[in-house]
Amino acid sequence: LTDVVEHNVCDMNDMISELPEDVLLYILSLLPTKDAVRTSILATKWRNLWTCLSAFDFEILDCKSYDPESANCLLDLVQRLLHKSSRIERLCVQIFRTTNIDANKISYLMYSASKHEIQYLRLSLGDRSDKLVLLHSFFGFESLNELYLGLEYTLYISNGNFFPSLKTLVVSDENSVQRLFSGCPVLLELTLYNCYWENIKKISVAISTLKKLIICFNIFCVDYDHDMTVMIDAVNLLSLRCTCNPTIEFIPVNLTSIVDACIDLGYDYLDNELYAAHCAIKLLSGISNVKSLKLSNDTLQCESGNK
């Protein structure tokens, strides 16, 4: 048996801090972000150690437990992190169902994040009662591979290629989607979810590189009296999932490579069954080359309305 090394108890109080920094960072990486931040009060060596991590997940989930000031304080913390750190590869900031968040803080956060070599970015912020515009939010994310935007704000996006490396885009901000598409020259997967489309009458998804498209609108998000068309022009599209209001008119173009599709068109509370049937048939006719097709009962009922 090897000799047991004896230590004075007083000398063992901070043995963990004596570990190499790489080991300490590995330990911190196993913790939730909020717990990693809390280690900053342990000792001088730990004060800024958490800012050397590469992945961060900040969130406020329960609006009853947090007021807007707490949300703005969290944004300030993230902003300080973006100024201090040079290693951020993954950043997630989610503040759900909290109103009166400072829009300027969000704009500045997004601008600061664009200066990092972030590969994964998820932002879920705001409330639909906030009618705010984020100016000068996106200037370009050269290294970004995945972007998840769940913003209840209107983004100001100028023309140009902003995301030259982006492969996956998930977005719920209907006021920004069209210009976001034009800035993603190598996009492979696109998800549109829970967009309300209050001021949008036409969306054109014309992306030659696109392989997978998910359109998931809550059927109550779009007024049945609101005319809207979605053109899908994606010659290399392999997979399509569509869950939405049946009175949205889809215009499929060049969907010759599609392999699998899942279509779920809500049917309840329709005033114009004939028009809904027309929209359903037009969508299904445009994916006639599909090899595997799943249709919901509502979709079949909607289609039968034309008979």
Automatic annotation (TrEMBL):
Ranges in a coiled coil: none
CDD domains: F-box_AtFBL13-like
Domain F-box: residue ranges: 13-49
InterPro entries: F-box-like_dom_sf (IPR036047), F-box_AtFBL13-like (IPR053781), F-box_dom (IPR001810), FBL13/AtMIF1-like (IPR050232), LRR_FXL15/At3g58940/PEG3-like (IPR055411)
Record-linked Pfam families: F-box, LRR_At5g56370
Protein name: LOW QUALITY PROTEIN: FBD-associated F-box protein At4g13985-like
Species of the source: Cicer arietinum
